[in-house]
Amino acid sequence: MKKQNRVGSDSVFPEALQQRLNSYALMAGAAGVSLLALTSPSTAEIVYTKTHQVIGVNSSYGIDFNHDGTIDLTIQDKTSQGCFDGCNGLGSLLAVLPGTNEVVDDVYGAVAMKPGMRIGQGDPQKGGTQFMAFGSPQGSFPGGSWVNVNNRYLGLKFSINGETHYGWARLSVQAQVPMFFTATLTGYAYETIPNKAIVAGQTKEGNDGAPNAVLNVPAAQSGTLGMLALGKK
């Protein structure tokens, strides 16, 4: 009587079968890795650029937030001639925005935002040229949100390939009464995910927590000097 071969711990698989099993294992492993790669969600990222740029009287500096060769915001410090109860010089610090780009704005002009304030959809924003600070020899003190501030934030909405992104620029501004300004830009950042809000001062995703300040827009007031500084009546 013939003894039958038993498949057990001592049995050996034929070489061809062993190779086939190894191939299946490799294929299954590769498929698993591919599926994980396909289903892994894209993560948001904040791109932060540290800098130190001093913007003095009658000078300007253009900021390219995403470094694509396009200027998204220009900080301009200039003096000009304005006529209001006589003709006198006017000094102004301006946020100049190309295209559809906008800054967070109120009746005083571009807002000097505090750290932790949210920048995103629903904030009051304006484009074109918005004043940050202004002054005249006739005035006893300059006006605007950016007079003698340290490490405040200019909130920006701008476009990348037709999609809306939000960012901030950090500046300190000193006023030489009554009409001269010096601005120092120390950094800027933007959120790479379209339409996603950013927090003023945030340099990494999730590192600043929830916003801890809100933007209070004051009631409309007269801004005659500021309008003159912008060439408006």
Largest sheet: 7 strands, antiparallel
What count of helical segments does DSSP give? 2
As a whole number of angstroms, the C-alpha radius of gyration is 29 Å
Would you tell me the structural class of the helices and strands?
A: mainly beta
Q: Provide the helix percentage.
A: 10-25%
Q: What count of structural domains?
A: 2
Q: Mean of residue pLDDT?
A: 78
Could you tell me how far the N terminus lies from the C terminus, measured between alpha carbons in angstroms?
115 Å
Query: What is the tally of beta strands?
Result: 13
SSE series: HEEEEEEEEEEEEEH
Note the beta-strand portion.
35-45%
Globally, the shape reads elongated
- pLDDT under 50 segments (min length 5)? 1-13, 24-42, 209-233
Notes on the structure:
This protein has 233 residues and is mainly beta. The chain folds into 2 domains: 13-42; 46-229, no CATH class. Helices cover 13% and strands 40% of the residues. It is built from 2 helices and 13 strands. It has helices at residues 15-39, 224-229, and strands at residues 46-55, 59-63, 73-83, 87-96, 102-106, 109-110, 118-119, 125-126, 129-135, 149-160, 163-176, 180-191, 198-199. Strands 1, 5, 6, 8, 10, 11 and 12 form a 7-stranded antiparallel beta sheet that branches. Strands 2-3-4-9 form a 4-stranded antiparallel beta sheet. β5 and β6 (109-110) form a beta hairpin. Mean pLDDT is 78; it is low at 1-13, 24-42 and 209-233.
Describe this structure in a few short sentences.
The chain has 233 residues and is mainly beta. It has helices at 15-39, 224-229; strands at residues 46-55, 59-63, 73-83, 87-96, 102-106, 109-110, 118-119, 125-126, 129-135, 149-160, 163-176, 180-191, 198-199.
